[in-house]
Amino acid sequence: MRTALATLSIIVLALHGFIYYEQLSARWQDHQSQYFREAAEQSDNAAVRAALADRKPQIEQVIVRSFGQPRVDRCMTCHIAVDDPRFVKADQPLRTHPAIKGHKFETFGCTICHDGQGRAVDAEHAHTGGHDWPWPLLAPELIEANCVQCHTEPDWPYAPRVAAGRRLFFQRACYTCHTIAGLSYGSVGPELTEVGHKRRASYIREKIENPRASNPTSTMPRQDLQPEEVLALTAFLKSQQASNVARAPLTSFVSAQQQRPEWLPLAQIVGPALATSVEPMPPVERGAALLPQVGCLSCHRLDTRDGRVAPDLDFTAVQRDREWLMVHFNDPKKVVPGSLMPPYPLPDEVFDSLSQYLLSRPLPALPATPAEQYALLCARCHGDKGKGDGLIGPYLDPRPRDLTKGAFMKTKSRERLIASLTDGVPGTSMAPWGKVLGPERTAALIDYVLGTFPKGSAREPKGRKVPAANPVPYAPVSVARGEAIFLDRCWGCHGKKADGHGPNAEDIVPRPRNLRNTPFLRSVTYARLHESIKYGVQGTAMPAAGFDFALSDQQIGDLINFIYSLNGLGAPAPQTAQLLPTAR
Amino acid sequence: MSRDPGLLANLRDLPKNVWRSLFRNPLPSSDLGRSQTSFANFFLHIHPVKTHVHSLRPTYTFGLGVIAFSLFIILAASGILLMFYYVPSVEQAHDRMLDLSGTVAFGVLLRNMHRWAAHGMVAIVLLHMARVFFTGSYKAPREFNWVIGIVLLLLTFFASFTGYLLPWDQLAYWAITVGTAIAAYAPGVGELMRFVLLGDRIVGQEALIRFYVLHVAVLPAIITILVGVHFWRIRKDGGLSRPASADLPEAQPAFPEAVEGKLEGLAARSKLQKKKSFGVLGMVRGPFNKVGNTPDNTVYSWPHLFAAELFCFALTVLVILVVAMVFNAPLEAPADPTHPPNPSKAPWYFLGLQEMVSYSAFWGGVGIPTLFVLGLLLVPYLDRGNKGVGEWFSRHRLLANTLFVLFLLVNLVLIVIGTFFRGPNWSLVTPW
């Protein structure tokens, strides 16, 4: 025991010695000694040399009080030669800082421009700030983001990258989803007013390059950007710090409290020059000039440009009419409830120009064979192999139909499939392609699809009895009965809000139908709803409620009355397909 | 009275006399000296003069109690030094952490030592409790000391928890937000309890100052007092528990007259009650000086017990120093109430609770923990058999030990799940 105790005591003592040595000798002391030595060598004045020889290393600090919360910058403890012009060519940390007119170290310190953790006197803590510090040293190419904190004039010429990022913020449609107080009012994505204050530049950059990198459920479309464009957007977003150090807190507060305008001035989005030059143009040309500038093509495809997120606009001219386009511009969810597209904060004149331009475009030439037509028109959503996983498939809700599921495809009549292709499916991204193809080519394309993709067999539906009209009259009692059945049997997949997001929905492909999709429900006949509920939908997870849950035709009628009540469809139940909700 | 030898001689002997007045006894060479060393020293006299050899077996106690107390001393010393730099204000607290971790000499080391010793103390106190349980040491007459031990365990949790907020970084802020939210699930008093603890509806300046005062003054004072009682009771309860077989077989009374009732009072008791170890007065100064080869299998505390204790202390210091030099205590971005991390996790020792809360707020956060604590407090009053005391995993205590192993395992598994297997939105993730 005594030997062990003695050994242990000696080890602890030795460790103490090491700790004292390690804690009391820091790297910055070496840097300062080196500076004193080299400065003395370069000096020809004996008195200066003597003074330098007498200097002892000490912590140097600047307390910056002019910009918000006091900052303590101790960077000069290592970078002691920043204001000594003789060290221009020296290695860091002893290099001279280039002189910037009017910016004195005593007033500004270092971190106000460079970020980093000013209180630390060892390189690692000072530069990275340690674990999770939001403001590590800014890369030189991003420092502009801090310049514009004080230099807020919009045309300040020394921050070209921030200005380019600002243009991209509008050109790439970021403004339609994200709010930056005083600049944009999107409500789909997170607010970015303070993003530069809260997030590291590396995080912002990663999010722009790949929105799903740190959040696998993000619905933000991945944009096709050049490295320089990513850098510009990063610099612009890093400059969004809300608590502007040069601005009184009151002005920030007032700008944040500003009323959300119905639309943004065009000049703010495309720049004053373009806004003025499009003013006198006729609508079609104005639309042509604006369409690439307001962000449409960061998701949609037109001609050679493709945002790879949203449907092709090349065929819009014949598929849609002006009324549809205007409703869709103002609120895409009115016609496609699951649409990812945010409402655009633009004035109606601009929508009108854009609509007229799109409607005036000539239809591209169609290829001859159905296979080529499928590749051009259908594969963007349904995928090359018909699996419903095309380029933009993941961004659509409901997802494109998986054409390989024999159980679904083979139990539907050819007429119904042709009708879906001809007229489109209201409330979804399926467009009326019949207007592009004409009846013969539509039928040929359906035959091609049916002959190529579906796999596996299906039970033939036989002897189905489906009433053509609801056996139960629409009445509050019936709706209440229907709701009780819904909350008993249906909500697990369709969700308690009937929006198709029930607890089981995550694992089901295709996703359960959103029963609040009014345009879709308006377009579907009563008989088809009744049949789908009573006999189930083959190739999907929809069970045959008429047998599995022993629901009678009357109960199914109640259920459908409840679904109609959610969509304001009430009595009398609509029997004919209607494409549009009433115009606003 | 000796004659004053004169000023010069006094000056000459000054160092020697100061030394002697400090250390009354020279290094002992006789058993009487060894007794007096313990007896006459303020810091040593809470120990018995003699210690049973069974208590000194390293594999019986593993020194866990002494290690826990050593960690408490390290925490007090490093904590007092940290107080010189720390300011409990939401504006300054995090800046002071940056100063400590980047600029102040020894700052980062002290902070690391304090942080790791705090985690270590929670762990060691838990292990100490497990040791006491598995050796059946909570049985009569030691029931109340077990209860004090459980209270000390809870105080250790609370002291560590209150210290968790002080760095005022994201980790601290959200751990306390989660931890106090668990407390609010208590029916009726939960919200009030949370409000009293935080002084506000959210964690803010009021919470910081309250946690600071609790952490640096209130809790250490209570812990110090209860630790004193805990130690004192060990002696009052006859030293550490030991099996009957550890004692020498009963010898014939050396003084038949005591048995026959011819001796009375203290004298009779000191003859008959051989195992009693608190009769120091009687032993050293009393009429019957038992110093010598008494047949009770004990050894003198000086040097056996003290050397062992010093060894545990030095070992603890060494481990904490090395850990503090190798691993930095975490410090995240300054607390930001508008930006919760996902997931927000409580300190590790409360992650079992948080995991249970994710199944049921009331049962996980209040019901089951209350049952746990009540169960622990009542153990010595519910399990009153006297077999298997002083023996690790005695087969007489198979049921009790199995239940306790299960209790520990359940908590351990929950903590491991909460620590490593829970990701954003508290969904299951794999750590590899």
List the helices and strands and how they pair.
The complex is a heterodimer of chains A (584) and B (432).
Chain A: H1 2-24, H2 27-42, H3 46-54, E1 62-64, E2 71-73, H4 105-108, H5 111-114, H6 123-128, H7 144-150, H8 160-171, H9 174-177, E3 179-180, E4 184-185, H10 195-198, H11 201-209, H12 227-238, H13 249-257, H14 266-270, H15 272-278, H16 283-290, E5 301-302, E6 305-306, H17 316-319, H18 322-330, H19 348-360, H20 370-382, H21 406-409, H22 414-423, H23 434-437, H24 439-452, H25 476-494, H26 518-523, H27 526-535, H28 545-548, H29 553-566
Antiparallel strand pairs in A: 1-2, 3-4, 5-6
Helix pairs in contact in A: 2-3, 8-12, 11-12, 16-19, 18-19, 20-24, 22-24, 25-29, 27-29
Chain B: H1 7-12, H2 14-22, H3 31-40, E1 50-52, H4 58-61, H5 64-83, H6 93-102, H7 107-134, H8 143-165, H9 170-183, H10 190-198, H11 205-236, H12 256-259, H13 265-272, H14 280-284, E2 298-300, H15 301-326, H16 351-357, H17 361-382, H18 398-420
Antiparallel strand pairs in B: 1-2
What can you tell me about this protein's structure?
The complex is a heterodimer of chains A (584) and B (432). Chain A folds into 5 domains: 110 residues, no CATH class; 116 residues, Cytochrome c-like domain (Cytochrome Bc1 Complex, Chain D, domain 2); 95 residues, Orthogonal Bundle (Cytochrome Bc1 Complex, Chain D, domain 2); 83 residues, Cytochrome c-like domain (Cytochrome Bc1 Complex, Chain D, domain 2, Orthogonal Bundle), CATH 1.10.760.10; 91 residues, Cytochrome c-like domain (Cytochrome Bc1 Complex, Chain D, domain 2), CATH 1.10.760. In chain A, 35% of the residues are buried. Chain A starts with a helix and ends in an 18-residue tail after the last helix. The radius of gyration of chain A is 33 Å and the shape is elongated. Chain A has 29 helices and 6 strands. Chain B has 432 residues and is mostly helical. Chain B is built from 18 helices and 2 strands. In chain B, α5 packs antiparallel against α7, α5 crosses α15 and α7 packs across α15. The interface between A and B is medium-sized, with 31 and 31 residues.
